[in-house]
Design brief:
four-stranded mixed β-sheet, alpha+beta, Glutaredoxin, about 110 residues
Length: about 110
């Protein structure tokens, strides 16, 4: 088994029709996940540098589609297919794409006082 340097968790949660909260799965997140897989493979990064993974709800529904990057524990919001190449490049550059990063409302992270 090969451990990658980065893991991209793409939320795939689908809420029922008529739900008061949005869901990433109804906002094109499956296509975004597939685009990450394709972009990583095209660049030859999929076996050692990064892996795209699906996830269930990341609890940032109003920001979706959402992608969590580990390590680094940062979340990208409102990700579209057009963002995928730049987000993959940000892994290589070693710095998050700041324009898409969800800024936490809690200074030390979302789980500090839970």
């Amino acid at each position: 088994m090969t451990k990658r340097d980065h893991y991209l968790f793409v939320c795939q949660n689908v809420r029922p029709e008529g739900s008061p909260r949005p869901s990433c799965g109804r906002s094109g997140s499956h296509e975004i996940y597939l685009a990450f897989k394709e972009e990583l493979a095209r660049r030859g990064l999929h076996k050692t540098v990064a892996r795209a993974c699906t996830s269930s709800c990341l609890d940032m529904c109003e920001e979706g589609p959402v992608v969590c990057v580990q390590p680094g524990n940062h979340f990208y919001r409102n990700v579209s297919l057009e963002h995928v190449p730049a987000l993959v490049q940000s892994l290589l550059d070693g710095a998050p794409a700041r324009e898409l990063v969800v800024e936490s409302q809690i200074p030390d992270g979302p789980n500090k006082d839970r």
